[in-house]
Design a protein that fits this description.
Length: 208
Amino acid sequence: MHRPCAQGGMVAGGRGWHSGFMTQKLNLELRSGLPEHLRVLAEKYPRRDWYGNPNFNDLTAFWLDRHLMFRELLDRLIAGTEAFLDAETAGYGPELARYSGFLLNQLHGHHQIEDAHYFPRFQAFDTRLVQAFDLLDGDHHALDAHLHDLADQTNAVLQKLANGGAARDDAGRLLTVQQAFKGFLNRHLMDEEEIIVPIVLEYGAELE
Ligand SMILES: [Fe+2]
Ligand SMILES: [Fe+2]
């Protein structure tokens, strides 16, 4: 669905659909964190203590590193667009195509693994957190639509650059989309981490 774009310079987007499963205030775009009733384990296992917990395992560290990589990729893309808007930097197009394609592709694969393996397995550990997995599932659907917007606007810039046209206005719009996506992605990753990692620590669960 989301493919790297090394050759053609274009980024393939995803399906653009939302799920309407939960109250509006818990939507990815509107919430400012997990609601209290879904923080039962997050309160017991604060983030600062995760790495020192004996149940914290290598695969959990690897999974958190993937999240860090997504954040860093997006920061790099945003910095590239800002630099282009400042000074029309050479090399912006190839770097934009390369890193956008990689981010879209990797993030899509990451969601697929979570949807197919992590979420079904982890929600069985604690019935108090069933709604937390509905929330994460809704996030993935919402992010799918935002990934589609990101791919579309990235392609608009790449197309202008490929045709030798002025890409400044499109790059300005892309910066807005990239920055909005950063907000949505950070919200999802933070909340997902505060659901999954405390389950690992409480139950000794393995991310596999
Ligand atoms: Fe996720
Ligand atoms: Fe994730």
